[in-house]
């Protein structure tokens, strides 16, 4: 837990400035990750950047440094970049347990904690049943009451309703996101549950690791 809290504290105290990334004309909206429309564009660093809607265009123009790193070609819902501590966290879009699309970029300006879950994993169940996740969320609230917690389920056979029921059973109010293909999990290098990632208010990944110092989750 000490390592996690240290990472959380660093995410607040040492949030570095956002940086922009030059790139070719994109096919995915850098704000939502959805297919971009060629008739909704703006200029950035001498290049035309396309968006899925005018709302995303306005968001980008208001704060381009937050989204410029997501300017990429292709149709993937997740950036091809690998997550690296100390660098900007790759954007992604997943469906939540209600079937609504959620992008990491939706929470620009907020501290975000990603937690990989699997209701069939004994360690994941243990940290829930013993209240370790609830304690972590309480500690987080003490550091930043506006933080966002996202639970990501990469279990290919899991149904959204099962994931939603699992979170509800343990009193977790954060969004449950479904990653059945494992694409986001691979980008972030999430190989175990409950693997945690802390992203600071500037979108920089500050922590990657366990929920506490006990590998058994006790």
Automatic annotation (TrEMBL):
Transmembrane regions: none
Classification via InterPro entries: AhpC/TSA, Ferritin-like_SF, RNR-like, Thioredoxin-like_sf, Thioredoxin_domain, Thioredoxin_ResA/DsbE_sf
SUPFAM superfamilies: Ferritin-like (SSF47240), Thioredoxin-like (SSF52833)
Thioredoxin domain location: 83-218
MF terms (GO), sorted A to Z: antioxidant activity; oxidoreductase activity
Protein name: Thioredoxin domain-containing protein
Source species of the chain: marine metagenome
Species lineage: unclassified sequences, metagenomes, ecological metagenomes
């Amino acid at each position: 837990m000490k390592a996690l809290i240290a990472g959380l504290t660093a995410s607040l105290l040492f949030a570095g400035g956002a940086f922009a990334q030059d790139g070719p004309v994109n096919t995915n909206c850098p704000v939502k990750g959805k297919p971009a429309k060629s008739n909704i564009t703006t200029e950035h660093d001498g290049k035309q950047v396309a968006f899925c809607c005018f709302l995303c265009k306005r968001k980008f123009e208001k704060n381009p440094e937050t989204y410029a790193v997501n300017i990429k070609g292709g149709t993937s819902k997740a950036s091809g970049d690998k997550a690296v501590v100390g660098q900007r966290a790759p954007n992604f879009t997943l469906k939540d347990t209600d079937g609504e699309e959620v992008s990491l970029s939706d929470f620009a300006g907020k501290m975000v904690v990603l937690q990989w879950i699997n209701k069939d994993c004994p360690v994941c169940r243990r940290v829930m049943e013993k209240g370790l996740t609830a304690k972590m969320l309480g500690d987080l609230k003490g550091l930043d009451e506006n933080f966002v917690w996202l639970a990501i389920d990469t279990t290919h056979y899991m149904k959204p309703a099962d994931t939603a029921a699992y979170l509800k059973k343990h009193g977790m109010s954060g969004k449950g996101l479904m990653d059945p293909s494992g694409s986001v999990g691979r980008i972030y290098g999430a190989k175990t549950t409950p693997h945690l990632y802390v992203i600071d208010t500037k979108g920089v990944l500050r922590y990657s690791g366990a929920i506490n110092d006990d590998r058994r989750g006790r």
